[in-house]
């Protein structure tokens, strides 16, 4: 947490936007396995995969039902197909979990970045409030001094007018 506050303080002192650092971060090292898991998870969760896989299963079943009487490839209970599907699920689940973990790390980093931006904004808003309050105090002081001068001038005018009225009477 101290590291985050230090980053915000440095950005304020440098008068730079935190977003610049966040939009151009140092290149993240992504391993080939991580890239592969992301691509497999992306493909495995797409309509393209669902349609293709449904088509392959339908062809497999039709072939084995229609030709299964003459060939012993994978007859009715489709044990080989079940084995392949189980292996696919066993491999696909950890790959998808690896991709989700990477996405979780990205989301955590994004939330941290949002926190930094919000923190800096809050600090800047507080600074602006302090500056506005200071300006208002200065304005009030100037107005009070101006009002005092006006009152003195008005008193002088009233005194002068009163003296003139006395002269007229006498």
- Report the biggest beta sheet as strand number plus sense, adding barrel if it closes: none
How many helix segments? 5
Helix share of residues? over 70%
Task: Count all strands and give the number.
Answer: 0
Class of secondary structure makeup: mainly alpha
Uncertain stretches: none
Indicate the proportion of strand residues.
Answer: under 5%
Terminal residue distance:
85 Å
Walk me through the structure.
This protein has 170 residues and is mainly alpha-helical. It has a domain at 2-22 and 29-121. 84% of the residues lie in helices and 0% in strands. The chain is built from five helices and no strands. It has helices spanning 2-14, 18-23, 32-44, 47-66, 79-169. Helix 1 crosses helix 5 and helix 3 crosses helix 5 (79-169). The longest helix is centred in the last third of the chain and has 91 residues, at 79-169. The N and C termini lie far apart (85 Å).
């Amino acid at each position: 947490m101290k590291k985050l506050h230090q980053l915000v303080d440095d950005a304020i002192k440098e008068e730079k936007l935190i977003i610049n650092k966040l939009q151009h971060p140092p290149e993240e090292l992504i391993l080939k396995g991580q890239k592969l898991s992301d691509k497999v998870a992306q493909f495995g969760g797409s309509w393209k995969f669902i349609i293709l896989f449904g088509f392959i299963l339908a062809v497999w079943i039709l072939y084995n039902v229609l030709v299964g009487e003459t060939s012993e490839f994978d007859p009715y209970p489709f044990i080989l197909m079940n084995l392949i599907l189980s292996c696919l699920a066993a491999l696909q689940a950890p790959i998808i979990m690896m991709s989700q973990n990477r996405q979780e790390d990205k989301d955590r980093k994004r939330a941290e970045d949002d926190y930094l931006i919000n923190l800096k904004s809050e600090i800047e808003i507080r600074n602006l409030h302090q500056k506005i309050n200071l300006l208002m105090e200065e304005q009030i002081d100037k107005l009070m001094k101006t009002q005092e001068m006006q009152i003195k001038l008005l008193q002088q005018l009233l005194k002068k007018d009163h003296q003139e009225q006395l002269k007229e009477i006498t």
